[in-house]
Amino acid sequence: MIEPVERPLELWGGVECTVVQIGDEFRNQVEETGHLRRPSDLDAIAALGIRTMRYPVVWESIAPDHPDICDWSWSDERFARLRELGIRPIAGLVHHGSGPRYTSLTDPEFPHLLARHAERVAARYPWIDMFTPINEPLTTARFSGLYGHWHPHGRDYPTFLRCLVTECRATVLAMRAIRRITPHAQLVQTEDMGKTFSTPHLRYQADLENQRRWLSLDLLFGRVDRSHPWHEICLRHGIQEEELDFFLEGDGTPDIIGINHYNTSERYLDEAMDRYPACFHGGNHLHPLSGATRIDHYADVEALRMDIPPEELGFKARLAEVWDRYRHPIVVTEAHHGSTREEQVRWLAEVWNGVQELRARGHDIRAVTIWSLLGAVDWNSLLVARNGFYEPGAFDIRSAQPRRTAIGRAAESLARTGTFEHPVLDQQGWWRRDGRHYHPPARKAAAPPRARRPILIAGATGTLGRAFARLCEQRGLDHVLLTRTEMDITDPASVDAAVARHRPWAVVNAAGYVRVGDAARERDLCFRANAAGAEAVAQAGARLGLPVVAFSSDRVFDGGLGRPYLESDPVCPACVYGESKAEAERRVAQAHPEALVIRTSAFFGPWDTSNFVYQVLSNLDAGRTVAPTEGIVSPTYVPDLVHAALDLLVDGERGIWHLANQGMTSWAELAERIAVEAGLPWRAGPQAVKDAPRLTALSSERGLILPPFEKAVSRYFDECEVDWRAQSFLEAAE
Questions:
Q1: CA distances for 482 relative to 321, 465, 642, angstroms
Q2: β-bridge partners, 269
Q3: Residue 294, SS3?
Q4: pLDDT by residue (tens digit) across 677-734?
Q5: Which domains does the chain have, with CATH numbers?
Q6: What global pTM score does this model have?
C-alpha cells in the first residue's frame, strides 16, 4: 500500500551564487545581482516565511588568491544574520565554478584543497548542518569539459570525465572533513535532471546521454562498479580503476538529492536539421563509443516543443525516475523559469502542485526551492555573454531596494499556507499550450476545462490597445479588447455594463485623446476622454476591487527642471494635453488609490505607422528632409512598455510608475540614429520651433525596468512588420 508523505511540504529559497571562470575572467552572480552590497536582502527574504535557504560561502570568494589567505568578513556578517532570522542555511562551497585561480577541475589537488576550505567553513560555522560542496557536478563538467563554455574550456570526453571525477571526489573529501567537526552534517547533492528523446536513427545517442545523466549521483552512491555502463567508458578515457573504486564505499551517498529541472533540461535529437533554427544544429563528433557508422550531425532542441506524450515530459516524470532509482529523500532545489511574470508564476504553481501529487503516491519529496530569489544575470547565454540580461525572481533588483514580484507574493502564501491563487493561473504555461510545437502534433491535447477571467482592455483602435491585445495573446493572458461602441469610457454606465458583462480580473485603460496638437482647440473633448474617462474606469474598478492600469504622459511636466523627471516630481503641465493627463492622474488616485498609473514618453512600435520612427523612415526613403521639433525625450518602445506594464499588473503594483526606455535624446538625434540604423542618407531640414517641452525625459526612482532606448531602436528593425519602403514608393507613385 502506498503511504502518502505526512510531513508538510516546505518552501525553501536560494540566491543565484555562481562564481564561474570564463577565460581569464571570473563572473560572480552575488555581485552582479547586487546582493553583495545589500545585507537587507536577508530580512526581505525572511519576511516571505522562508526558513531554509541555499546560501553561498563560495571558495573562490573566500580565498581567491591563496588557499591560506581567507577573507570571512562578508560571510561572517551574512551567516550571523541568517542565524538571527531563524533561517537554516545550506552552505554552498562551489557553484558551477572550477575553484580559485590556483587550481582547476583537472587539478589532482582540487579535491584536497576544497576539503580544506570545507573544514574551515565547518569550524567557523559549527551550527550549519547542511552542505552542498559542489552544485550540479555533472552539469558543470559538461559545460566546462565537454562544451567548452567555462574554465578549463575542454571539448572532449577525457576532460569532461576528469572534471566530473574530480568534483565527485572533492565532494566526498569535503563531507569527510565537515563531519569530523559536525558529525551529523547532511549532504544535499544537487543535479540537473533532464532526459533526451530522439528519432529512431539517433536512439543510440539518446541512450548514451540518458545513461550519462545519472553518472554524478551514481558515483556518489557507489554504484559505478564494473557492471555499470559507464565504467568502461571512464577507463577508456583516462580515469583509473582505483579512482572509480574510491567511490564504492558509498560514504559520498547524499542525505538529500536535490533536483534542478528547467524547461530546457529535456532535449530531442533529430537528424533532419533543416527543420529547426540553425542555433540548434550540432553533433556528436565527441561520441565516446566506437562501432558502426552513425549519424553524427543533428538538431538538439527542447523536447517540450516536440510531439511527445505529455506524461513522459516534465519534472514530475523526472522526479519519479529519481525516486525509483535511489529511493532517497528528494528536494526540488531549483524551480525557476526565465520568462514573463505570469509564466514564472505558472511554473512555480505547477511544480508545487505536481510535487504534492507525487508525495501522495509515497515519494519522499520534502521541499520546493524558489531559485533564484533575487533573479539572475545573463543566464540566457550561460554567462558567456555580458549583455546585462536580467531575469527577476521573487524580487526585482532593478529598484533602489529589491521589489517583491508576483513570485514573492506566491512564495509568502506557499510558505505560510501551502496554497496560492492568482488569475493568471486560469491559463496553462506556454509549455502546455497549443502553438508551442516546431511541427504540428499528430494529436491535439485537450486543455483542462477551467473558468477564465480576462483582462479588459479599452482602446481597440489605438496603438497601445492593440499592442496589449497582441502581447496578452502571446503571453497566454486571457483578454477582451473593446471598441468605443462596446465600452465608452466617457460614459460610466457603459463602463459598468462592460465590466459586468465580461467579469474581468483587471482593466487596462489604453483609450483616450491622443492628438496633442489639437488639444488646445478641442479642450472639452480632450478632458472628457482623458480625465473623465480615466475617472470612470477607475471608479468601476474600485467598486469591484479590480486592479486598474491607466496611462499618463511626460507632458504632465513643462521641461524646465533640467533633468529627467522622477515619479515624485510635482506635475507642471505646459499644454492642454498635459493638463488633461495631470487631471486624470488626480482623479484616478482619488477614485482608486490602488490603481497603477503609468507615465510614458514618445512611444514607437513595430506594428503600426502612427509613430515618429515610421514617419522619419518613410520621409527619408522618399527623399524628403526631416525637421524634428525641439525637445529632449525618452523614446519608448511599445513592446517593452507593454511587457513591463503587464509584469507590474501581475505583480500587483500600484501608484505612479515611469516606464520609458532608459536614456534620453533630442528628436533630431533620434531621427539621425534611425537613419543610420536603416542605412538611409540623413537629410535634416530646419528645426521647427513649436510650443513643446524642453526636457521631458523620464527616469524612475521606483525601478528602471526597460532596456536602453538605443537597443530598442535596433530591435525595431528586426521586429518591424510595417513596410515603410513600400509605403514611400506608393506615395511617390501617387
A1: 48, 9, 17
A2: 198, 300
A3: coil
A4: 989 888 776 655 555 548 999 999 999 999 999 999 999 999 998 887 755 444 443 4
A5: 10-432 (3.20.20.80), 455-609+634-666+696-707 (3.40.50.720)
A6: 0.94
